[in-house]
Amino acid sequence: MTFFFTLSILFINQSLLIAQRNETKLTADKIGITFSTFGENNVFRSDELDGAASYNSDYFFTIGINYLHPLNKWLEAETGIEYSKHNIIIEPNLPPDMDNSSRKANFSLLNVPVTLRANFLKYFFVNGGLIVDIDASTNSPIDNQTGIGVLIGLSAKYDFKSRVSVFVNPYTKIHSLIPLSDTKYHQRIWEDGIRVGITYDLKMK
After folding, report:
1. Phi/psi at 50 (nearest 5 deg)?
2. Cα–Cα–Cα angle for 171, 177, 181, nearest 5°?
3. pLDDT for 116
4. Fewer CB in a 10 Å sphere around the end CB: N or C, the chain?
């Protein structure tokens, strides 16, 4: 995923130039469904605490509904709502005479993306922007994730003549980059995954 993240940054500037020559006409809004998984969900702090438990990635999934609005021939605004379930493994850091057995835990998030898609070379787009995180957990093992996060991704897509489009979107998210809770040494979620989706063009016949 480190290679992907670096590649995405390099493509952003290039895509903004190439996309202006893209002949794809975005004439209507689109609505779609998405599913994300196949990645890692790591818990981290900007300053790690000595003696604190460690958190290892287990697995996660995200399902969502997305809405796309064309701003011009190559740029689209995207929003929607997503529900994600994260599973992690907690490794306690306790004295030797205490139980240091690892345990599994989970938490849930609601996400509202506020992002842009820059289309280029007909079959690709770069997407990025902000995500509004709402912690939907009732008993979370980590700090409350309600706040503002960021997203960046690079995608391949295919548009069918039937007004249906499909895409595969490797991405990186950082949840609660700007948390709403006032917690010292706040924990955040770094998520790398692959989002797949299908959209339908709402243009009138």
Report:
1. -65, 135
2. 140
3. 97
4. C
pTM: 0.79
Instruction: Please write down the long-range contacts of 6-12, taking CB distance under 8 Å and 24 or more positions apart.
Output: 7/154, 8/126, 8/128, 8/152, 8/153, 8/154, 8/172, 9/152, 11/126, 11/154, 12/118, 12/126, 12/128
pLDDT, residue 50, reads 56
Q: What is the CATH number of domain 2-201?
A: 2.40.160.20
Q: What is the residue extent of each domain of the chain?
A: 2-201
What are the structure tokens assigned to 142, written together?
Answer: 């980590």
